[in-house]
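Running log. JK asked me to keep both predictions on one page so they can be read side by side. First protein, sequence followed by its tokens:
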Amino acid sequence: MVSGGAAGIGEAIVVRLVEEGARVAVADVDGERAQKLAERLAGDGGEVLADRVDVSVLSEVAGLVDRAAREFGRLDGIVNNAGVAVPGSAESISEADWDRVMSVNLKGVWAGMKYAIPHLRAAGGGSIVNMSSVQALVGFPGWAGYAATKGAILSLTQQAAVEYGPERIRVNCIAPGTIMTPMNQRIFETAPDADALIASWNSSHALHRFGESPEVAAATAFLLSDDASFVTGSCLRVDGGLTVLGPTGEAS
């Protein structure tokens, strides 16, 4: 199951997993878009089911997890990817915005884990991949709530890896750098100078470019696979060198 699977990074993950032969359940708050993706992939021979799911509502998460396990016969992995970008400093963010970003980004990850773990246990083990961010590792002004959720996801990932490792359930997270997604595109569309912002974000990566959703999908597929059988509790940075680039912002 992939939450937030109808667009951006989530859609790329779904496509990659189907290409590798997985049967995938797509959860997204945009149920119509999720269904269209499922139909498109089914036309190419993929086994995909989709449903409208608000990850902040536990019953909706539980419903699709249970449906996926029932229809596919088992659940081997889950990608907790759904998220929202809500700007604001610790001082300026409103209570409503704080609660929203916590409910989707953090509660949604917890909900996915809560309802997937019993199925993974029944399958004899499995893999959980949580979508964190480089904002869990370095500071970005103006994103207090978002950063707090992504840091908490990293900590929750480590805690769960320790707790469920003896049951052969691996738990890892990914920390993407700047990825060209619809969520980031909306940020550029509202920026006073989009070109300057894009140039600034490009230069903050050692590779001097944005990442693409399929690059994150490839890392996710690895962590879900048996190739990562001895990897748990890790945070895989897919960030184009953002977190290692020095303060000059220059890369040779």
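And the second, directly underneath as requested:
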Amino acid sequence: MKENKNNNGDIVTSVEDSATIISTLEGEVNGQEKCPKCGSTDISMNKNNGKLRCNFCRHEFEPEKVSGFETDISKLEGQVIASGATKITSTEDIVTLKCSSCGAEVVIDTSSSTQARCHWCRNTLSINEQIPNGSVPDVVLPFSVKKEDARISIENFVGKRKFFAHPKFRAEFTTENIMGVYFPYMLVDINAHVNFNGEGEHETRSYYVGSDEHRERRYDADLYHVEREFDIAIKGLSVESSSERLNNTSKEKTNNIINAIMPFDTENVVKYNANYLRGFTSEKRDTSIDDLKLLVDTQGKDIARYAANDTLKKYDRGVKWNKEEFKVKGQQWMAAYLPVWLYSYQEVTGNKKILHYVAVNARTKETIGSVPIHMPKLIAVSAFIELIGFLAMLFVDFDYKWAFLLAGVIYFFIMYFRYRNSNARHTYEKETKREISNLRNVDQFIRSRHGLSSAWMDGANNRRVEGTKVNSNIIKQIASNKTIDNLTSGNVVADIIKDKIKKKDGQ
């Protein structure tokens, strides 16, 4: 495995240097797809059923699946990487594609697109040289939700949030300009061995002590030594592979909205074909496996922790893991394009700009969005509710009358999160497919505890999620790497040109 140094001088290793690379383009002709019935290259996707359709003879044919990968994740060993997921090494964005059908040349800017149409024969061209470039995916999940259905979903979502919506947004809102976008993701399968060791508590009794204003609730619980050891097979963990979309804490863009419409039915992905992109836009992947591995391993551990919770229902006060081991035995990486219907609106307040998204999962129709809020109106209504709560505290006989003072504050935050969904995210720890095997349980009684003041075990961490905290560090590292790449790219290009000149002179 090749060793390199990062910006801090630490020794790091590249995953790809010791991985098995599987080409997803065996037998393919770059940029060429012909109708199996008549041989025409005028192919498009039937959005009603996801099949490819010949626009000449109207013949429809089934999408092709990728092959050569381990389907039984429990048998996965080492690192397996699809060719489309390999490191992006291309230094030139502007390339010329030669149509393999008629020979015409088409110039394409790969910084904004990975496919084009031949303006002579209408053949779909694409950059399918995956091994040296790594910017084209292995698989694609075709659109199945129609644009009209997506428009209705977005209109219904926004329509339920118009009361506190900003007046300018209400006046300018229209779904006529929604776009179908393929976003880049990494799909990762993980085979791992897990060993958790700690303590858990089971409540045996709850009761009150004291009287009147000094009345307090207490709990009795049994304390156990708990161990869970098992193998886990994680299938299709989906991670954004665009550094911009990975930044879910951005203050300029509501990227968490796109993250929150997951999961996709990735078991239905088909082999990448540029014809699926016809009529839609797409974004390029700009991260490598080395950039994403820490995030994937951390999310895999979160998934394992929640899988263990299925065996811990006895411990209703929680479990405190003192030792957590997550050993990866095998990983399988695949680059994918996943479909999203997207509405965007830029809110401008003085020098501050926020790009709001309303997104529709183009497979499941899951719809989540961020709507600009008219803050003066929300604050005024919240203040009125706070006043009502204050009056209720004065005249209503209730043991916890102080709670009325929180009414306005609670209402404000409920409405804020309902409109902005700033806390929305993909709950991958629960929604990612996983299967555990070879389970070993240890539940050993230690002692009974009495008079506990908290309803939850002190230090309980079995519902902790760490993957959401890793993103910010990854974004900083990627940004730092890009800065270095930009500073050195001129020398790299110069070296390539010099090398080509030398080769030419030597011929």
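Observation for JK regarding the second prediction: Residues 1-12, 129-133, 483-507 have pLDDT under 50 and may be disordered.
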